[in-house]
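Thread: quick sanity check before group meeting

JM: Hey all, I'm pulling together slides for Thursday and realized we never actually wrote out the predicted structure for the chain we discussed last week. Dropping the sequence here so it's in one place. If anyone has concerns about the input, flag it before I start.
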Amino acid sequence: MKTIKTLLVATLGLLVLVSCEHTEKQITNPKDYQAFLDIKENKGLNFTLEEIKFWEAKYQSDTVQKSYLGIIAAKYSTLFQYTGEIKDLYKADELLSKSNKASDYSKVGTLRSLARNYISQHRFKEALVLADKALVIGEGKAESQKLLFDVQMELGNYDIALKNLEAIKDMNDYDYLIRLAKWNDHKGDLDTAITFMEKARTIAEKEDNKTLKIWSYSNLGDFYGHAGRVQDSYDSYLKTLSIDPNYTYALKGIAWIVFSHERNTQEAKRIIETIERTHSTPDFLLLKSDISSFEGKQDEAKNYKIAYFDLLAKNNYGAMYNKYNTLIYADEKITATKALEIAKVEVDHRPTPDSYDLLAWSYLNTGDAKKALAIANEKVVGKSHEPHIQYHLAMIYKANNEIDKVIPLKKELSTSIYELGPSFAQKIENL
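JM (edit): ok, ran it. Output follows.
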């Protein structure tokens, strides 16, 4: 019997290794998206640049009109979406700060715009101060409550976030539905989240609102992927690109499908490197590093991480990449203490289960498994359903010999390999 069991385990191990190499059902086709990679001109970007020139000229000729500052700031925010250049986000910040100062922080629209800019920069506590100030002023109360929901979710104040969500309840309102979808996703009810996002999409389509359709399709692309509906995810990303051919987020989503579902590393890299010509952000380098690591090209993977940190050094991204940095540093014993330092900062800035997971994971990788378990039990367990957090929990349980808790997590994680990435297939098998 022992020989049979050993043979069975060995066979299962071989099956896992083979599954890492085999190609899943082909979903993508370069003919579907090649035209979006071949685009030489970004009409939206060019229009935004022209708008900036126009409004900056108007402001220079009449600097008393401080209202122009908010308009120009909005254009720079749009520019940031197209280019990924952090300087554009900071320029919007500068203009909005100047506008708020000129009005003595009394205009709710400008307050909310600056708060959203701070959210993009991961300056959540500062965003909350502005959102609260806008609510106190009272004008456009519902818009301020939507903003407060967004900020409180980022800060992990879920009870307060829910109160703000309930205050704007309207099943026919697009903004309410997308937040209701986010709330259900947070609770781990992905099917319900998808249902509400689809209702929001229907509203966007009925109104034929380009911006809302892009947002709906791209977010549904993410949700469908998390739910294992990869074909629907792919179709939704293509719909996004049919409206805005330069929407790099959707192209990145397709690259993930090509990599994680189809294991076509060469094509995934080709898509990413094409995107990088016009939209270069640090996370693309980490994705290429992940792909190279899966290919077994460890030196290449390491070089991409070096390039990632070089890019961070050249640009001040603030706290925007703290999560990525923590996970990278925690992987190596020599840098694990650095991961712990960053994780502590993240918990202070953003005390969410995700941040506490980073802290617990960092303690585990610095050799303090008991401390990691204590933090996980108090701040993480049952408070998040994200697969990467569940994997960290499984590793923490394993390190503390709580194997009975590892088994159900391992079973759950085996269904999340697409979302985690193919490199996790063997990691999960080794739990």
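AS: nice. Residues 1-22 have pLDDT under 50 and may be disordered. The CA atoms of residues 5 and 11 lie 10 Å apart.
JM: adding both to the slides.
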